[in-house]
Amino acid sequence: MGALVILGGIFYRSFLLPESAVPVISGKTHEITITAKKDQWRFEPEIIEINRGDKVIATVINEDEYDHGIAIDAFGISQRMPAKSTIQFEFVATQEGDFPFYCSVPCGEGKVDGVKRTHFDMISKLHVRSINSSTE
Ligand SMILES: [Cu+2]
Fold this sequence. Notes:
Layout: H1 2-16, E1 29-36, E2 43-44, E3 47-51, E4 55-62, E5 68-72, E6 77-81, E7 86-92, E8 97-102, E9 109-112, E10 115-118, E11 123-129
The structure holds copper (II) ion (CU).
Copper (II) ion binds next to loops.
């Protein structure tokens, strides 16, 4: 009986889900370094592009003397980054689309080249390409 339920689940995940929602694992790994630049209230890079199903191993460096955080809601990521520290996390990009990654710890504000920047400006983008389309 248990086996039937499991088989049903596998059948559902394999055949009935819309193609874009079926979990995929490409077997490829991307090692990515993201830096919270010192006193700039931004992450570098501002865009990261990968393919759906890719595994991401992210190393995140906080250059500041105060804490930041990094969150990617779609993949359940939310990590605190203590001052002057480096953290690591990993996930598989099971969904395609554009997902913001942003600072999740209020970290103040300041001026960069005369322009005000704040905690809320700390947003970059993860672009996960469709695995079927060669046009993206
Ligand atoms: Cu921050």
